[in-house]
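Worked Example 4.2. Read the sequence first, then its structure tokens.
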Amino acid sequence: MIKWVKLHFIPHDGNDHQPHFLRFKIGCFILLLVLLLEAVYLTCTMIVLPRSEYFAAIFATVLIDETNQVRQTDHLASLTVNPILEKAALLKAEDMAAKGYFSHNTPDGKTPWYWFEQAGYDYAAAGENLAVNFTDSKDVTEAWMRSPTHRANIMNGNYTEIGIAAARGMYKGKEAIFVVQEFGRPSIIARQIEIASSTVTALTKLITQNDVTEEPTPAPVIREVSVTPSTTPRVLALETVQGVTEPQEEEIAQPIIPTKTVVAGAETEKLDTEKDVVLAPTSNSGNQATRIEELVASPRSIANSIYLFLGGLLAFALALAIFIRIRIQHAHIIANGTLLIGVICLLVMINAVLVASSGVI
């Protein structure tokens, strides 16, 4: 092994001060390997993955994990996956895919919160992020985090639940994957849930200890009490500029009326009058992506990792060829290494530009 490394990377008398890793034959092999990898990557991202139902399904799962990882960096609690929010996200994604539009509001004027109502999610606060034409989950997450309005949704400590879905469709004449990320906080606050749970647990223990044979005590019904804000509320008025939603604050002169949506756009809250509330089951188990799914959902990251590895080897070999015997240099060896590193850098830049020019949030 040591002999092989010395022969391929270290210039010495045994290889005529021309490391084999930088010679013409191996250089041609590396160039063909890189070009083949790029061809496979472009074929997958432009043709295969946008048409794959499997890819659309795992894309959503991986994005949930990445969203929670980003929140944890800011010491925020992880969002719990809610099946009803996933249904709302899927309804919205399928509608965009079927009609070929990309907007928070539908062409016929339906707001994002219409899909929450259709799915049956009763929220106290809700938000929505959208993306289209991405084939790498990390690219989607990074694009959302670079946008102030999308980042605000992801890092909003007011949300407790999440649902993400993706659907295949046509966007600007090309196959594309529409991604919808829905955030929510149910209309019963966490403290009320904890009180209800502890009350039921205490009653169950009491009945068990005393061996009571009476009919079971029904679980208490939790009612929400409407709250009138004491300060002048502020809302986000949304403008769409080239597909990007930007917030502008506006003052509301009149107090908020309970049961009405008080924020319009990609983020909303509402105050409910007193009523019985039924919670939907939530779960984090079974929703975490496997390592294979994470890899499949990150083709550009994989390609970049391979390019980085090959580029690192070439840079290492080139540095050894130049500096170990400075007085003995071979121009074609240096040219081979420099050319290959340049090709790899060019491909990485091209892929980044393709993502930046095609992906929309």
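Now turn to a second chain, presented in exactly the same format:
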Amino acid sequence: MALTTTTCSPFTQAVVSSMRRLYPEALADKSFDNTGLLLEAPFEPTRRQKNSVLLAIDLTTAVANEAIKRQDSAVVAYHPIIFRGLKSITLDDTQQRSLLRLAQHGISVYSPHTAVDTVPGGMADWLCDVVTGTYPSFKDELKPSIKECSSKLYSAPTYPQPQSIPTTGSSSTSQQLPHTRSTINPSPPASIPEGFESAGAGRLVTFNEAQPLTTLIDHIGRGVGLQAGIPIAIPQGRSVDDIRIRTVGMCPGSGSGVLLRGSDIPDLLFTGEMSHHEALAATERGSVVISLSHSNSERGYIRAVMQRKLQDELSQRWESDRQAALQAIKDTAKQGGATPSAVGEEVYEDASVEVSVSDADRDPYGIMIWRS
């Protein structure tokens, strides 16, 4: 009996190639991370998925349900849903259940994680854009969306507003603060592909002139989607109104391992989470800590930057791949080869490409606001 080769869909292969070009897996921290194609769903030509990708930070049950309903070909989930070795894959585990359901519906899962953190123009540089105000000014004043609940003291949980996250990287914006930026912990030279020489963990922004802390807080709030509160740790005896910041260290997610290295630490440490004792140590040394909640320091990037980047790269990649495949089909037919199935050719005749950001994806923590 002839052996058959089972692969994911041609469009999913284009998604994987595009992600690897934008965020090389060689830049991921393989000492602990698990990046790449984590779930390769077999391609079934008689059951067509859409030429679409769903971006999310966390592959929760809600995100899996969303991808299945949308009939996406792939989910790009920043955090790897498979992190350590598995001894079994069963329906009893909620994460494994999501993977099994996605595979059943022909949806693959790719995770870039720390490759996105370290790459030039990646998540750490997005945080630099946020804190320096490198994004367009808001034309209309936005108002918080606070809903009531049955609590007599507090509102319903609130979350950052994804529709308010601005596209970053605009050098023409008038609010951008003059600065320089550098990589805190450069990647090993041997692991850096050509064109990614400034890769590494964390970024350090040095302003030409010290800036009011409150100005940076406003930049951060608008840049990450106006979350209801900004968790901040400042040295005792100081006020946010009298603190000025010259240097800012940034690291998405859990940043203490990058930001607290060395004898000198930045004036402001901007990250997703930091433990009680780490924040206390930083403020005792005179620094300020802004810790947004782990994924709130990450989620805005996929909407502000990654969606556009992947849409452009994937559109070019898929057009090239499908034109090459269609030409191969024509050449085979001219040479009297087997006529390809109508379904197989139909796959490559579909030129559509859609990259969307999950509506269901959010940080597990919301903020309930005290109502006076």
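Notes for the reader: The chain has two domains: 7-115+299-357, 117-141+149-165+176-294. The two ends are 75 Å apart (CA to CA).
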